[in-house]
Amino acid sequence: MSKKGKSLWSLNFNTATLVLIPAAIGINYLGKLFAGVLKLPLWLDSIGTCLAAVLAGPIVGAICGAANNIIYGLTMDPISTVYALTNIAIGLAVGILAHKGFMKNIKLSLVTAIVAGLVAVVVSTPLNMAFWGGTTGNVWGDAVYAWAIANNLPVFFASFIDELIVDLPDKIAVLLIVFAISKSLPKSLVALYQSGDTIDSLDN
Amino acid sequence: MKSISLYEEKGSILNKLAPESKILYIILALVLPAIVGSKMVSVVFIAISIGLLLFSKVLKKTIPILGVSGFVLLTVVIIQGLFRAGNVTPLLTLGPVIFYKEGLLFAFNIVVNVLNILLSFCVLILATKPSDMIENFVRKGFSPRFGYVFISVFQIIPQMTETMATITDAQRSRGMETEGNLLVRIKAFLPLISPVVMSSLINTKERALALEVRGFNAKNKKTFLNDEKKSSADKYIQITMILLLIAGIVWRVVGCLK
Amino acid sequence: MSKIVVENLKYKYPATDFLALDGISFSAKAGEFIGIIGKNGSGKSTLCQAIAGLVPNFYKGSYGGKVMVDDIEVKNVDISDLCEKVGTVFQNPFNQVTGSKLTVYEEISFGLENLGIPKEEMIQRIDEAMELLDITKYKDRNPFDLSGGQMQRMAIASIIAMQPEVIVLDEPTSQLDPQGREEVYQAVQKLSKKGITIFMVEHNMEKIASYSDRVLIIDDGKQIAYDTPQKIFSRDDLDEYGIEAPAFTKICRELGKKNPVTGCYPVTLEEANDLLKKDKGEM
User: Fold this and answer.
1) Which member of B76, B79, B189 has the closest CB to residue A38?
2) Reading across the β-sheet that carries C86-89, which strands appear in turn?
3) Shortest alpha-carbon distance between residue B213 and chain C (Å)
4) Strand positions, DSSP E, chain A
C-alpha cells in the first residue's frame, strides 16, 4: 500500500478528528429535524456522517455512523441501533470515494451519492425484512411495497424497491449538501483533520 | 437545558443497579427467545419489562419511545394483513378491505419482537444516566477518548436544537418561506442548516484545543470524581441472568439431541 | 531567572505560505504579567498557542527557534504534559465547555480526572478554584446554562484547578458583554496577585496598561517592541500597528505632560493623577 493508503485506514485519531464525531452526530440530528420541520419526504439524517467521511476518511465516517445509531438507540428509538450497520457502510463508502477524488465536483459527487444510496439499500433491506417484514415506514416506499406484494412479486424484491425509492433520492440530496458545505469550509480547518505527524523545521 | 436522554432519577431499584446489569438484561431478553425458539418467551420478557418499568415509576415515559416505532408497526399490520403473499383466510372485513389471518399472524410476530426490543431497552435507558453508563465502561477499559465522544453527544444535540430554533426564527423573520410547495421547502433547507453546520464544524477547532490543554490525551491512568455506579445486588443479578442464559442453551442442545 | 524564554520563534501553519510568527524573541520572569497587543491577524493567538505547545504540536506545520518554560523545550513535550505547567484560556467560553459534564462542579474536574489526581485532592482543588473565581454558587448548574462571563470564569477555574505556573489568556473577554468582561478582569487580577505568570491578549488598553509589567507589540508575525507599558504607549507609531493608547495617555499627550523621570506619558488614571497633582503643587 502507498503512504496515502496507510493514512486512510489509520486508527490514530487526533483530538480535532475525535471532536468532529459528536459534531457530525449533531448535524445528522439537525438534518433529520429540519427535514421534519419542512415536511420533506426525505430523511436527510446522514449529512454529518457523510461530511465526517469526506473530511476525515472512511474509518471516521463509519464510527460516526455507528455512534449515531447507538445513541439514537439509547434515547429515542432502540430499533435504530441495528441500522448502525447501514450507516457504517455509508460512512465507509463515502470516505473511500471522497479519498479517490469522487467529491471534487458536482458530477462526481452524484456518482458518490448513487453508490452510497445503493450501499444503503443493500445493507438495509435484510434488516427491514428481519425487523419489519420488509417495510420502511415511509409512506411512498411502503405504497410501492404494498403494490409489489399484492402483485405477487417476491417479498425481498418489494422490500428492495421500497428502500430504494426512499434511499436514493435521500443520498443524492445529502451528498449535494455535503459537497456544497465541504467546498466552503476554510482550508485551515480541513487541514486539521488530515494533518500528518511531522513538523518541518524552519531553523537553518 | 433540555436533555435528549429520557432518563429520570426516581431513586428506584433500577436506578441504583449498575448499568451493566441492565445491559445484560437486554441481551437476555433478546437472545433467550431466539435460543429457546418460542415467541412465548418474548411475551414473558415483555411482561417482565413492563413490571420493572411500572415498579420504577417510569412506565409512562415509554410512550414517546413506543410512539416512534408505533407508526411503523401500524403500517406493518395494515400492509401485511391486507397484502401478504399467502393470505387466504379472511379474518376481519371493514367495508371493502379484508384483513387476512396469515398476514395478521405474521404482523403479530413482528409486533411482539419489536415490543420486546423496545421495552427491554427502556429498562436500561429510562433508568440509567448515560454518563454513568459510559464512565463504567471507561473504568472497565473502554477508551476514555471515545467515552468522551459518546457522552458529549448527549450535551451537543440539545445545544444544536436550541441554535436551530434561533436560526429558524431569524430566517423566517427575514422573509424566508418554510411552508408551501415541495420546491419552496426544499429550497429553504440549505440556508437553514448550513449556518449551524458551518459554525459547529468551525467550533470543533477551539473545542479540540480546549480539550488538549485539559490533559485530554494524558497517558496516565484516569481518576474519577464520581464513585462507580453499582449496588450490592448487582453481582447476584448478573450471575442469575448468565445462569438463565446457559440453562436456555442447554435446554436447546438437549432438545436437539433427543 | 526567567520563567519563559522565547528565542527567534518562527512558525508557518500547514497549508499556508506565510510565516504566522517571524523571529519572536523575549523572556518573562516568574510572576510577571505580560500584555500582548497588535492588530487582528497579527499573530497574537499563534504566539499564545506557541507558549502552551499547541503550536506546533496540535497543528503540526513548520517551526523554527524555540520556546522554553523553565528548562523544558515546549516543542519536545506532549501538550498533555505541558498543560500541568502552562494553562490556556481561549476566546469563546462556549467552546471551552467540554460538553461531557452535567454540572459546573464536574466540568472543573475534567482536567483533574485526565491528569489522574486522586479524588480527595480533586475535590479540594475544585472547591478552591470555584472559591477564587467566585462561582461556588453555580456549582450544580448545567455548564451551558451559565452566562458568558460565568462560563468564562468556569473555564478559568477549570485551568486554575490544574495548578499551572503560567496562564495564557487569549482574548478572554472579547465575546462577553460589559458585565461579563468586568467579572473576568477581576478574576485575572486575582490570579496575578497569586503570583502566577500571566500572558494576556486583550483589546482594552486601559486594562493592559494597568495590569501589565511588560507589553509586547506584534505586527504581521513580527515583534515590534517589548517594554514597560509606559514606554510602549508613549511611542509615536502606535497607529501603524492598529493600537490606540489608553485614554489617560492620550489626554496627557495632548497636554504635553510627561513624567520627568521616565520621559514617558502616564498610562493609568493613578499615574495621570499623580503627575497632574505634582504639576499643580509646583505651580
Assistant:
1) B189
2) C86-89, C166-170, C197-201, C33-37, C214-219, C222-227
3) 5
4) 199-201
B100-139 per-position pLDDT tens digit: 999 999 999 999 999 999 999 999 999 999 999 999 999 9
Tell if the CB–CB gap between B156 and A26 is shorter than 8 Å.
yes
Contact flag A132-B72 (C-beta cutoff 8 Å): yes
Task: Give C10's strand partners.
Answer: C22, C64
C77-84 mean pLDDT? 96
Query: C135-168, pLDDT tens digit by residue?
Result: 999 999 999 999 999 999 999 999 999 999 999 9
Structural Rg of chain A based on CA atoms = 18
Number of domains in chain A: 1
CATH of the domain at A72: 1.10.1760.20
Total domain count for chain C?
A: 2
Among C24, A44, C109, C203, CA closest to B185: A44
Mean per-residue pLDDT over chain B, rounded: 91
Window 1-40 of A: residues touching B by CB (8 A cutoff) are: 13-16, 18-23, 25-27, 29-31, 33-35, 37-40
Dmax (CA) of chain C: 65
Give residues with Cβ within 8 angstroms of B116, minimum separation 6.
B29, B30, B33, B42, B45, B46, B49
Which residues, other chains included, contact C92 with Cβ-Cβ below 8 Å and sequence gap of 6+? Answer: B203, B206, C175
Residue A111's pLDDT band (cuts 50, 70, 90): very high
Same domain membership, residue C252 and residue C219: no
Average pLDDT of chain C is 94
Q: Which domain holds residue C147?
A: 2-245
d(CA B49, CA B122) in angstroms, rounded, equals 8
Domain residue limits at A149: 14-193
